[in-house]
Design goal:
The complex is a heterodimer of chains A (135) and B (583). Chain A is α/β, with parallel strands linked by helices and 135 residues long. The longest helix of chain A is centred in the C-terminal third of the chain and has 19 residues. Chain A contains four helices and four strands. In chain A, helix 1 packs across helix 4 and helix 2 crosses helix 3. Helix content of chain A is 42%, strand content 17%. In chain A, helix 1 links the parallel strand 1 and strand 2. Chain B has 583 residues and is of the alpha/beta class. Chain B folds into four domains: 131 residues, 3-Layer(aba) Sandwich (Rossmann fold); 182 residues, FAD/NAD(P)-binding domain, CATH 3.50.50.60; 163 residues, FAD/NAD(P)-binding domain (3-Layer(bba) Sandwich); 58 residues, Alpha-Beta Plaits (2-Layer Sandwich), CATH 3.30.70. Chain B has 15 helices and 32 strands. Chain B has a five-stranded parallel sheet with strand order 10-7-6-14-27, covered by helices on one side. In chain B, helix 6 links the parallel strand 6 and strand 7. In chain B, helix 6 packs parallel to helix 7 and helix 6 runs parallel beside helix 12. Chain B is globular and about 90 Å long. The chains are: A alpha/beta (135), B alpha/beta (583). The interface between A and B is large, with 49 and 53 residues. The complex binds flavin-adenine dinucleotide (FAD) and iron/sulfur cluster (SF4) (2 copies).
């Protein structure tokens, strides 16, 4: 199954949202809040549109974890965005299990457009958790 | 077979912002190996006029059919480079942006090797996405030159008059029996001493005189269909009769509801404890001394920030954390009104203003200065120990620690306590069901961007203005109403609108019309159509917002969002792992 990336540092694929969480992640960079270079972001319009198959594909191909940075309550499209994305996570985790992947390799959190610190601490924590999964 | 793509990749130094931490030359060279990449080079500033001209020339000369710009965040220059692509004759939707600054160089300063490796991966993902783009055209929609304004407070009335002045037809729908909103009940208003009811009467006279405006009172918007530029609105009159209006845009100015204190909050419920609205009306009540329950008023205490700037606690599980903006000014202005009353009536009245911070910002500072010159005494309290209002000897006593006097505990005997209650979001269930405008945490309607797009909402063609969007004084309400007028006029006077084509597309071969996408779509943008003799789902282009809620629910995997297609995301994932997969 998925093996840790180069130097044993877990690789994380983040799905962000163009209007809300991606600016939050931008802000982490603007503030030079360091996080691992093994974190890579693909921005989407809204977290409610993430396909479970994308996440399973990413984890099978070599990412060690996937993180959905949802817009939370700030979503401009959907008032129930968090509920919908939460349901997607549950579905994806079921699919991951079918593929023999630990559901702990997927995480989701609402991330606002100024949640820079939050993003960095999520990444650090998630990498620690992924390391302990692989040890 | 797909033809071989001709993609140009341009990596930006950003003057050093990127190249100090990412080896941009190495990134550019690595990308030359990617399938479809014709050109890969760096620029000191991709966004400079000279670089843009070079890229335009190169796109034309080399006949490129794809463009990848790796530079700062797309939030800054997406539209710059889209326009550049168009100038070069390249479809703007065949350009892909890679965020090499905010999400790479700036986040990984001090790790040039790691940042360069990541930069290569990010740019590879961009190229992989670009290779799967195809030309898209904006969706063009004709617009109707008519506007619906919901709510006839000062913001709505002012907006209607200006819209009509642009030559648009305007329908105003007011739920109450009378137009005017809260200004009708606010008495003499600061900072410039305009009489609220008179402001309203002037606006109403202009509305009545305007042939292009129809005002419906006791009316409510109960249904809406259609899309930006061409909505059909159903308005129920007096709860019985329906009229149908065809409009190109909707401006929502439904205002606020004053905060209603909890029982016992600052003495609320005790005789002599009133709101600022009550107090303004008492001042107007006519000749004779100012009295409460027949007893002349000698001392008045004003308490600021009631229902605003709250913190979460046992007594306040859902705090209004925001400042209501108008109340400091309106209350301090009332100090001068009271002083004027004193002079005219000869009645001596002491006034105490118990505040947290005086937020009479900008020019409104003069109102505060005048209040102090007019004898109002300002005492500052700490939110940890708010003033308490009690009954004592047939009067009221306010107990407060004045932080400006070294926390000295004072007891002020007063006849009247005036609570400067803030603004809260208005309950509007019917309307919210119809329009589905997103709300902020505080319950006010949410704009798209607080600074850059303050009167537009996520619903195209629906604008918000006045206090419906958040607390504002009268001048600010009017300013935002006029901003909405400009945005609405800009939309409707042009006669057509171009929409982003980054929306859902359904593969009719795969679709079996199971209805799941329709159920998931928050915008009613899916309809059932016949495709040959097969029932399938179709996307209504003008209503789809492209957020993608329908994509993961389709059991047949039949839906894609343009710009974020399944094959593009998969290719991006593979491309960012290229090193690992190859190893
Ligand atoms: C006591 C008091 C004193 C004030 N003093 C001052 C002052 O001194 N200086 C100052 O600058 N500001 C003052 N203000 C603030 C000022 O009154 C407001 O900024 C202004 O009136 C806001 O106007 P609006 O049109 O946004 O909202 P509103 O006045 O709330 O108007 C909204 C209108 O929409 C209608 N409506 C609501 N829902 C619907 C619906 N679903 N369908 C149809 N219609 C609907 C309502 O009936 C109402 O007529 C004061 C406010 C109060 C309450
Ligand atoms: S304007 Fe003044 S009284 Fe009103 S909430 Fe803000 S600080 Fe408090
Ligand atoms: S969910 Fe998929 S299969 Fe079902 S109707 Fe919609 S597009 Fe067709």
């Amino acid at each position: 199954m998925s093996s840790p990336g180069s130097n044993g540092i877990p690789k994380i694929l983040v799905f962000s949202t163009n209007a809300i969480s991606d600016p939050g992640i931008d802000l982490a960079g603007s503030a030079h809040l360091h996080y691992s270079t093994a974190v890579q972001v693909i921005p989407l319009p809204c977290s409610s549109g993430v396909k479970p198959s994308w996440i399973v594909h990413a984890l099978k191909r070599g990412f060690d974890g996937a993180f959905i940075a949802a817009c939370g309550g700030d979503c401009a499209y959907l008032s129930d965005c968090t509920t919908r994305t939460g349901a997607l996570v549950t579905r994806t985790q079921a699919l991951m299990k079918e593929h023999g992947i630990s559901p702990k390799r997927l995480k989701m959190s609402g991330l606002c457009s100024v949640c820079a610190d939050n993003f960095v601490s999520h990444m650090n924590k998630f990498q620690q958790e992924l390391k302990s999964l692989d040890s | 077979m797909a033809h071989k793509r001709r993609i140009g990749v341009y990596i930006c130094h950003c003057g050093g912002n990127i190249s100090d931490h990412v080896n941009v030359k190495e990134v550019a060279e690595a990308l030359l190996d990617e399938p479809g990449v014709e050109i890969s080079r760096t620029h000191m500033f991709n966004c400079s006029d000279a670089s843009q001209q070079e890229m335009v020339d190169e796109i034309k000369e080399e006949n490129l059919d794809g463009l990848v710009i790796a530079s700062c965040s797309p939030k800054l220059h997406l539209f710059t480079f889209r326009a550049m692509a168009e100038r070069a004759g390249l479809n703007p939707y065949q350009y892909v942006h890679v965020n090499l600054r905010e999400q790479c160089s700036w986040a990984h300063t001090g790790d040039k090797v790691g940042a360069t490796e990541k930069g290569i991966n990010l740019t590879r993902a961009g190229v992989a996405k670009c290779a799967l783009t195809h030309p898209l055209t904006a969706i063009r929609i004709e617009t109707q030159p008519r506007v619906l304004v919901v709510g006839a407070g000062v913001a709505g009335m002012r907006a209607a008059i200006s819209l009509a002045g642009m030559g648009l037809s305007v329908f105003i729908v007011e739920r109450g029996n009378e137009p005017g909103g809260w200004a009708s009940q606010a008495g003499r208003m600061g900072p410039d001493d305009r009489y609220g009811p008179e402001v309203v009467a002037n606006l109403l006279a202009q509305i009545r005189n305007h042939e292009n405006i129809i005002l419906y009172t006791s009316a409510e918007l109960t249904a809406k269909s259609g899309h930006i530029g061409d909505f059909t609105a159903t308005v129920r009159l007096r709860g019985e009769e329906d009229v149908s209006l065809n409009v190109g845009a909707i401006v929502v100015t439904t205002g606020f509801t004053p905060y209603e204190p909890e029982d016992g909050e600052y003495g609320w419920g005790k005789p002599g404890v009133v709101t600022l609205k009550d107090f303004r009306q008492m001042l107007e009540a006519g000749d004779g001394p100012l009295t409460y329950n027949g007893i002349p008023v000698r001392d008045v205490g004003f308490i600021y920030c009631v229902g605003s700037r709250q913190t979460k606690g046992d007594t306040c599980p859902e705090p209004n954390t925001y400042c209501s903006r108008f109340c400091c000014m309106a209350t301090a202005f009332s100090a001068s009104l009271l002083h004027e009353f004193e002079k005219e009536s000869g009645q001596t009245i002491n006034q105490y203003h118990l505040y947290r911070d005086v937020r009479t910002y900008g020019h409104l500072e003069a109102v505060y200065t005048n209040a102090r010159a007019d004898g109002a005494l300002f005492l500052r309290w700490d939110p940890k120990e708010p003033p308490r209002v009690e009954q004592s000897n047939g009067r009221l006593a306010i107990k407060v620690k004045d932080t400006l006097l070294g926390d000295e505990e004072l007891e002020l005997g007063v006849d009247l306590v005036v609570l400067a209650t803030g603004m809260t979001a208005r309950k509007n269930d019917t309307l919210n069901n119809v329009l589905k405008i997103p709300e902020s945490k505080d319950g006010f309607y949410n704009e798209i961007h607080i600074k850059l797009r303050p009167v537009e909402t996520a619903i195209d063609g629906v604008f918000i203005a006045g206090t419906a969007q958040g607390p504002k004084n009268l001048a600010e309400s009017v300013a935002s109403a006029l901003a909405a007028v400009v945005k609405t006029g800009g939309l409707l006077k042009k006669g057509y609108v171009n929409l982003e084509p980054l929306i859902a597309e359904i593969d009719t071969d795969k679709c079996v019309w199971c209805n799941e996408c329709l159920k998931a779509c928050p915008y009613g943008a899916i309809e059932r159509v016949l495709c040959g003799d097969k029932e399938v789902a179709m996307v209504i282009d003008s209503s789809c917002k492209g957020e993608g809620a329908c994509v993961p629910v389709c059991p047949q995997d039949a839906i894609d969002i343009e710009g974020f297609r399944d094959n593009q995301i998969m290719a991006m994932i593979d491309a960012s792992l290229k090193e690992l997969v190859a190893a």
